[in-house]
Amino acid sequence: MSLREQTTLYASDATTEEQREAFLSGDIPVAVYGLGKMGLPLAAVYAETCGNVVGADIDPDVVSAVNRGDCHVQREPGLDELVSETVAAGALSAVESPTEAARDATIHVAIVPTPITDDDEPDLAILQSVMESIAAGLTPGDLVVVECTVPPGTTRDLLLPMLEAESDLSREEFGVAVCPERTSSGRALQDIRGAYPKVVGGVDEESTRVAELVYGELTDNEVIAVPNETTAEAVKVFEGVYRDVNIALANELAKIADAADISVNEAIETANTQPFCDIHKPGPGVGGHCIPYYPYFLIRQFDEEFSLLTTAREVNDSMPAFTVEKVAELLSEEEKSVSDSRVLVLGLTYRPGVEETRAAPARPICADLTERGADVFAADPVLPNADGFDATKLPLEALADYDFDAAVLVTDHDEFAGIDWAGFDPMVVVDGRNSLDLSWTDHRVYTIGGD
Ligand SMILES: NC(=O)c1ccc[n+]([C@@H]2O[C@H](COP(=O)([O-])OP(=O)(O)OC[C@H]3O[C@@H](n4cnc5c(N)ncnc54)[C@H](O)[C@@H]3O)[C@@H](O)[C@H]2O)c1
Ligand SMILES: CC(=O)N[C@@H]1[C@@H](OP(=O)(O)OP(=O)(O)OC[C@H]2O[C@@H](n3ccc(=O)[nH]c3=O)[C@H](O)[C@@H]2O)O[C@H](CO)[C@@H](O)[C@@H]1O
Predict the structure, then answer these.
(1) What family is it from (predicted)?
(2) Which region holds residue 194: left if phi is over 0, alpha if psi is between -120 and 50, else beta?
(3) ipTM of this complex prediction, to 2 decimal places
(4) CA of 280 to the centre of ligand 2 (A)
């Protein structure tokens, strides 16, 4: 019998124990579609678990790097070594063609981008193209896993019908489960291996059973089986919108604290001593590839309007302008104007230590300051340049050679702790992250929401 006839999962006549043994011994081939910030760590953990993974990525540089045992995803502790080890052991390899990867796989794991369009509509085109490739290679007993973050209802209404229509299988011959990745950049391996419970939701009980079996071997944490695929999709998106709304609350409270002339951070820290209170932190904006986008997986997904999610997005998107307005106000109180000022923006990435600038609040902040006529400089220890930002990038060690009229802390990278603030002539400072203590200097400091 061929390898593929021996080891299937969905509706297989093998016992669960036999299937588990086959999976762990590498007799059940896995394909992971998308080897990016989330996909490569996931493929590597699959490979260390089952020893038989082919990654598919349309970027030839990604494929050649992986096949050399190199890790193109930066700043992920342990990932360099794991990619190198699993490739050297023959447990992980990569191809450019998703269709080629689908041909031999029994478990198909999709973790490709699911961005939103300029009109804030979910864009599932990449995921659909991967589903077409999987459909072409789908065989009886296979399991399709959707790890991507998608609008609730996507698998039920779009992906499953695609797989049925474009494969030559009947609905009873293959499984589909939504197992959303709950991974944060910078801690991917620990998250995938079990920082949080793994959520799985199948299109039927057999799909859920198989997903539980597979992820029970990948994670050290528990596997939570939810009633269906749409619930699993919703869990992931709900986690994200909870955060966006909560940050918006903190930002609105910051504006209220300004009006009340109190420190919002003191008030929030004290309010959060109540176990039922978990107000997040105000800041100059909300960036990244997740939190600013997930609300649009709900806002536009159903017929009725959802005002809270929309309003939260508006509040968070107002924070860059709020921050620049504060810079202008403080300069004006020092009888300076933004148009004649040299302003230093500290931190361009969306959060500390992560080389990612999608939706980064520093981008509109630099643009607004430039629009107002300021001479804008930027420092960011994890970015090689300030491409895409209206700012001149300075290395940290060069800051002492300049004097600025204002500084704005947008993202509090650890490396900023070494800045010699006493070396600058007195200037205004807007601390967007409540992370500076400059009370010992002559600088005029405003912390968002009051210090
Ligand atoms: N990055 C995060 O922190 C994060 C957090 C939560 C959820 N997610 C979700 O994870 C998924 C993947 O995101 P990511 O951050 O890894 O994206 P990424 O941009 O880092 O990587 C995506 C990879 O997919 C490849 N790709 C694009 N089209 C492809 C195709 N048709 N076939 C195969 N490969 C293709 C790209 O070349 C790239 O290497 C998304 O659904 C995202 O919403 C990401
Ligand atoms: C698996 C997954 O999806 N994980 C997500 C991922 O999210 P992420 O990588 O997008 O990072 P976030 O920390 O959410 O930040 C987003 C933006 O919001 C700003 N922000 C944040 C908190 C706050 O109180 N006030 C703020 O203003 C911040 O500066 C930044 O610009 O990891 C988080 C754990 O780190 C998770 O919780 C989150 O589900």
Answers:
(1) Belongs to the UDP-glucose/GDP-mannose dehydrogenase family.
(2) left
(3) 0.95
(4) 10
| Over residues 302-306, mean pLDDT | 85
- Ligand 1: residue of 32, 37, 95 to mutate (most ligand atoms within 8 A of CB) is 37
Q: Among 73, 112, 114, which residue has the most ligand 1 atoms within 8 Å of its CB, making it the best to mutate?
A: 112
Pocket of ligand 1 (CB under 6 A): 33-39, 56-59, 62, 98, 111-114, 126, 129-130, 148-149, 181, 183-185, 289-290
User: How far, in Å, from the CA of 124 to the mean position of ligand 2?
Assistant: 23
What local confidence, expressed as pLDDT, does residue 202 receive? Answer: 98
**Domains of the chain, first to last:** 3-226 (3.40.50.720), 237-309 (1.10.1040.10), 318-447 (3.40.50.720)
Q: Is residue 122's pLDDT more than 90?
A: yes
- Both tokens of 325, joined, read 């307005």
CB 343 within 8 A of CB 379: no
> Rounded to an integer, what distance in angstroms lies between the CA atom of residue 128 and that of residue 52?
25
Spatial contact of 347 and 362, defined as CB atoms under 8 Å apart: yes
What is the average per-residue pLDDT within 194-212?
Answer: 98
**What would the pLDDT profile of 133-158 be if each residue is shown by its tens digit?**
999 999 999 999 999 999 999 999 99
Query: Residue 1 above 60 pLDDT?
Result: no
The atom of ligand 2 lying closest to the CA of 185 is: 9
Question: Cα separation of 285 and 361, whole Å?
Answer: 5
Owner of token pair 């596997």: 223
In tens, the pLDDT along 252-270 reads 999 999 999 999 999 999 9
**pTM, entire model:** 0.95
400 burial class (0-12, 13-18, 19+ CB within 10 angstroms)? Answer: exposed
351 exposed, middle or buried (CB, 10 Å; 0-12, 13-18, 19+)?
buried
Distances (CA, A) of 319 to 146, 196, 263, 390, 418: 34, 31, 17, 18, 27
Residues 233-261 have a mean pLDDT of 97
Residue 191, pLDDT score: 97
Burial class (CB in 10 A: 0-12, 13-18, 19+), 282: buried
